[in-house]
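Batch manifest, entry 17 of 40.
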Amino acid sequence: QVQLEESGGGMVQAGGSLRLSCEASGRTLSMLTMGWFRQPPGKEREFVGAIPWSGDNIQYADSVKERFTISRDIAKNMVYLQMTDLQPEDTAVYYCAASRLVLGLRRPTSYEHWGQGTQVTVSS
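Output type: structure tokens
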């Protein structure tokens, strides 16, 4: 019954920053593992990062390490993806995902619930 809704996407120039938000309803974030994925045009969905239900051991894809940061506000049932130093290669539809149980945080098939996605376009 978990529903997710992403927001905050848009167009930015290379080197710019953007913060994506994901609002979850139906379950508290303290009981959910939350993941961020992205799908570039013509390519498969790929892992960006994830925060386990415990809130620690946050994981990121090598391509976004040191540039992207995941955080959450349990009281607001919100998860955020702060993106800095954006590059054209980051252009994609970004998705928020959630699951009560996750075996393999980096695999899209591990997640039970998905948002509709939000477009991020980075110009060169």
